[in-house]
Amino acid sequence: MEDTRVDRWRDEFPITRDLIYLNNCSLTPLPKRGAAAIAEYARTWTELGGRAWYDHWVGVLDGLRGDFAEVLGADRDEIALEPSVSASLVSIASTFDYTKRPKVVVSDIDFPTDGHTWLALERQGVEVVFVHSPDRATVPLELFERAVDERTALVCTGHVYYTSGYIQDVRALAEICHRKGAALVVDAYQSVGAFPFDVHASGVDFLVGGTLKWLMGGPGMAFAYARRDRIDAARPTALGWWAMADPFTFDVEHLSLAPSARRFEYGTPAVAAAYTARAGIALLREIGIPTVRARHMELSQHLVEGALAQGWTLRCPRDASKRTPIVTLEHPEPARVVTALRASGCIVDYRPGLVRLSPHYFNTFAEIDRTLELLASLRVAA
Fold first, then answer.
1. Is the dihedral of CA 61, 63, 68, 72 positive or negative?
2. Complete edge-to-edge strand list for the sheet that includes strand 354-357
3. Per residue in 288-325, pLDDT tens?
4. pTM check: above 0.90
5. Beta-strand pair 346-347/20-21
6. Cβ neighbours for 375, distance < 8 A, ≥ 6 positions apart
7. What is 39-284's CATH number, 3.40.50.2300, 3.20.20.370, 3.40.640.10, 3.40.50.300?
């Protein structure tokens, strides 16, 4: 039975009045306070013009660095604002010397950007080695252990795999990498905001993520975390004028990098996206990440058990403690399933061979039950 908090949670998301929205790991719907933040951004731009930069926007951007730091358990000066995770990885990749350690390890079920970033450097001598998942859902740590050696510069992999929701033990993976002299770069886009996480305790060297999923901040804003002892030695060649110690000196002749993780930043940040990002994180802070995690586990487990009872083949862990709320069902024509569900007011997504459902804390058990009713007639018998 739902508790009284759910109505309050749902009221923040007008989309829930008309649709069953289970596509939150692609893009969470715009909350009311996000819409209010966009209106506030528009007001400052309209009324102040360029003065808005100094009176408001620079402070909003710095506040957002602090917001990201709070979510991760990092320090503000370990956070850089980025236009996307792809750009963030390119900047991080540009700091490594691959002459003695040319090898980069990625898994074959990571998000494409995690491989593309390093494959683009093959002409510079980088050797990309892919660890292959035995079940297309998880990658056992021993496979990474086997792949990482004295020629390995780094491992780049997801904290959570986007097609299965499996939560990787990045602390153990960091230990493997460091024992062999390699760095660990983590793509946390699928995980940040979905469960409590302490980036310092994890030991990772670099971590990237963004706001359009569980942080409820929409597209256009991402971040990079660089562990403090990695910052001073990092000399990114992919950067912009915001990476300077004082961008507003407008010095074109000298490269004076910021002493903080800001040295990974590019050009003028997307201020409107910063407003919605701060609104989404404020909402998450109000609800509490532990509350979100508990709700995710309950809702997604109800979905998993219902799908199994109907005979669906899952491509995600059955145990809710081992995954985020991402639930993936195998189907030879997933686009057809998604189209049929959308026609009935249930919004989900698909990936090759998979129907992907991802509830958030504001969804209800009644919505899960209705979705299962719709799925029953769409399953293809093995």
1. positive
2. 327-330, 354-357, 349-351
3. 999 999 999 999 999 999 999 999 999 999 999 999 99
4. yes
5. parallel
6. 307, 310, 312, 329, 337, 341, 355
7. 3.40.640.10
Q: State the DSSP code for 56.
A: I
Shortest CA distance to 202 belongs to which of 236, 232, 233, 225?
225
CA dist., res. 13 & res. 32, Å (int): 6
Kindly report the backbone phi and psi dihedral angles of residue 159, in degrees, each rounded to the nearest multiple of 5, phi listed first. Answer: -70, -35
Q: Residue 254: is its pLDDT beyond 70? A: yes
Which residues, at least 6 apart from 141, have a Cβ–Cβ distance to it below 8 Å? 169, 172, 173, 176
Q: Does residue 26 contact residue 213 with C-beta atoms inside 8 Å? A: yes
Got the DSSP string for 94-124? TT---SS--EEEEETTS-HHHHHHHHTTGGG
- Sequence-ordered list of residues with C-beta below 8 angstroms from that of 80, at least 6 positions apart, any chain: 65, 88, 91, 223, 224, 226, 260, 261, 262, 263, 264, 265
Task: Say which CATH superfamily domain 5-29+288-376 falls into.
Answer: Aspartate Aminotransferase, domain 1 (3.90.1150.10)
Q: How far apart are CA 180 and CA 53, in angstroms?
A: 46
Backbone angles phi, psi at 285, to 5 degrees: -65, -40
Tell me the percentage of the chain whose pLDDT exceeds 70.
Answer: 99
Q: Where are the alpha helices (DSSP H) in the chain?
A: 5-11, 32-48, 51-52, 58-72, 85-93, 112-119, 141-147, 170-179, 199-202, 228-231, 271-287, 289-310, 334-343, 365-376
Contact 144, 131 (CB under 8 A): yes
In a 13 Å sphere around the CA of 215, the CA atoms on its Cβ side amount to: 30
Q: What is the mean pLDDT of residues 139-146?
A: 98
> What DSSP state is assigned to residue 191?
T
Collect all residues with Cβ–Cβ distance below 8 Å to 120 and sequence separation of at least 6: none
pLDDT at 3 over 90: no
SS3 205: coil
